[in-house]
Structures are given as structure tokens and as C-alpha cells.
Amino acid sequence: MLSLIQILLLILDIVWFIILAHVIMSWLINFQVLNLHQQLVATIWYGLNRILEPLYGPIRRVLPAMGGLDLAPLIVLVAVYALRIVLINNAVYFY
To answer: How far is the C-alpha of 69 from the C-alpha of 27, rounded, in Å?
Structure first.
């Protein structure tokens, strides 16, 4: 059972880094450091959007319009971190 918790923690870590990469890439695109006309950048950007939209979509439907400010990644990061804390604190019960 401990290996199952470690696998779940690994998946949460991967999701954490994918979200961070998406946020940083969105900043770089908005500040025109990266250009979506470059094929590699566009492929990575659209791939990250397709991966993360199932996580962001339900949260965006619940949140009110913030005038261009998207808080969905922040809420997902907090949720991932909270799940990580819950798994670590309850790992003792799975020995």
C-alpha cells in the first residue's frame, strides 16, 4: 500500500510541474517573449492546454469573471498541494 501512496504522490508532483510550466509559459507568451507562430511553442502550448483544461474547466465555470485574471491554476495548485498533505498525513494508516 505504501507504494500506491508513493505513486499517487508522484502523479501529484507531475501535475504540479505541468501546471507551473503552463503558468510560466502563459506569462512568456503574454509578454511576447515566446511566439505562438513558432511551431514548437504552439505545439507545447496547445498540448498543455488540452491536458489541463479538464482540471481548469469546472473551476472556471464556478468562478466569477475576473476581467482577464484567471485564478483556476492557483486553485488547482492549492488543491494538488492539499491532496499531497492529506496523503502524507494518512500514509501511516496504510502500513
So the answer is: 12
Nearest CA-CA partner of 48 in 69, 78, 28 = 28
pTM: predicted TM-score of the whole model, two decimal places: 0.89
Mean pLDDT confidence for 80-94: 91
Rg (CA), the chain: 16
d(CA 23, CA 87): 25
Rounded CA gap, 66 and 74, in Å? 14
**Residue 94 · residue 4 · CB < 8 Å:** yes
pLDDT of the residue at 94 = 75
The answer to whether the CB of 60 falls within 8 A of the CB of 54 is no
> Letter for the amino acid at 79?
A
Q: What is the DSSP letter of 95?
A: -
